[in-house]
């Protein structure tokens, strides 16, 4: 038989996950615009595949990191049912920290790869539709997220 408490907890987790995912993706997209100094919406509208690849990789990267935070939040929410509200607060703080840290780390990673390729101005190439440049940047973005995800999981284990 389905427990109403477990069902309610699951629904709360789902709503929180959806809200945080949308917020994280919005923030990530906004920050990306500041990194590249180009109009991503305009680039997408004109069919710039390179811009689309990098934007997709940023969304995937943010999703990877947020997923770890949501797992911690689920644990904290479950513990709060038994009265451990500190675990819930810690998991919320950890998730917010994870989102912020992911965006900062992706920003730094993209800046670093741009500096490591001084003969290839990657952000300019992205604006020109250079798919190879976009794929290199996407690889850095997703790899950074995978590495950060491990760190977020470690924080979750320590806090919750």
The structural domain count equals: 1
End-to-end gap: 28 Å
Poorly predicted segments: none
Question: What's the Cα radius of gyration?
Answer: 18 Å
In one word, what is the shape?
A: elongated
Strand content: under 5%
Mean pLDDT: 81
Helix coverage percent of residues? over 70%
Instruction: Summarize the biggest pleated sheet.
Output: none
Count of extended strands: 0
Could you give the order of the helices and strands?
Answer: HHHHHH
Number of separate helices: 6
Structural class: mainly alpha
Highlighted features:
160 residues, mainly alpha, 6 helices
Q: What is the strand and helix layout of this fold?
A:
Layout: H1 4-36, H2 40-45, H3 49-81, H4 85-116, H5 122-127, H6 131-159
Characterise the protein shown here.
The chain is mostly helical and 160 residues long. Helix content is 87%, strand content 0%. The protein has one domain. The protein has helices spanning 4-36, 40-45, 49-81, 85-116, 122-127, 131-159. Helix 1 packs parallel to helix 4 (85-116). It is elongated and about 60 Å long. It starts with a helix and ends with a helix.
């Amino acid at each position: 038989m389905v427990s109403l408490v477990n069902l309610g907890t699951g629904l709360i987790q789902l709503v929180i996950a959806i809200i945080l995912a949308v917020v994280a993706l919005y923030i990530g997209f906004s920050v990306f615009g500041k990194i590249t100094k180009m109009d991503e919406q305009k680039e997408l509208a004109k069919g710039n595949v390179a811009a689309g690849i990098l934007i997709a990789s940023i969304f995937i990267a943010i999703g990877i990191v947020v997923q770890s935070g949501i797992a911690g939040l689920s644990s904290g929410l479950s513990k709060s049912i038994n009265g451990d509200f500190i675990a819930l607060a810690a998991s919320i703080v950890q998730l917010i920290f994870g989102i912020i840290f992911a965006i900062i780390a992706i920003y730094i990673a993209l800046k670093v790869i741009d500096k490591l390729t001084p003969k290839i101005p990657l952000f300019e190439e992205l604006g020109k539709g250079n798919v190879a440049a976009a794929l290199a940047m996407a690889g850095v973005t997703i790899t950074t997220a995978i590495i950060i995800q491990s760190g977020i999981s470690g924080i979750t284990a320590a806090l919750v």
